[in-house]
Amino acid sequence: MIIHGDVPSGYTVKAEGDIKIFGMVHVTTIIGMKDEKIQGENTRMERKQPISHPYLGKVIDKRK
């Protein structure tokens, strides 16, 4: 999964494979498979173990 752009705080990024983020990431939860690579520039990220979710591979707004 490649994200070109900013990911605001309160969002969750979930993907089944590698995650690359080109943009600002502020206090965002990153959830992926165990062997994935998470790369980002100018990032502050929290990594969690994978969970089952129908929206894998998308940025999900968790602020609501």
Automatic annotation (TrEMBL):
Region called Disordered, residue ranges: 41-64
Protein name listed in UniProt: DUF342 domain-containing protein
Species per Swiss-Prot/TrEMBL record: Cerasibacillus terrae
